[in-house]
Design goal:
Distance between the termini: 35 Å
Helix content: over 70%
Shape: elongated
Number of helices: 2
Radius of gyration: 18 Å
Structural class: mainly alpha
Length: about 60
């Protein structure tokens, strides 16, 4: 998590300092991709936890 925060901070700094439209667009898309990946990771962890702790799945089927 710390690495992701560091990366997002660096990308945000680059975005703010850039004057090139294409570079800013690429940086913004990268930031959005990282945030979406983190969101999906959290959702999948919750889904996995729910599946593992579901009593219906305890019978080994």
């Amino acid at each position: 998590m710390e690495e992701q925060e560091w990366l997002l901070n660096k990308l945000t700094d680059l975005f703010r300092s850039s004057r090139d439209y294409k570079q800013k667009a690429l940086i913004q898309a990268t930031i959005e991709t990282i945030e979406e990946q983190e969101k999906r990771k959290t959702q999948l962890q919750g889904e996995l936890d729910g599946t593992l702790w579901s009593p219906g799945n305890w019978n080994g089927s």
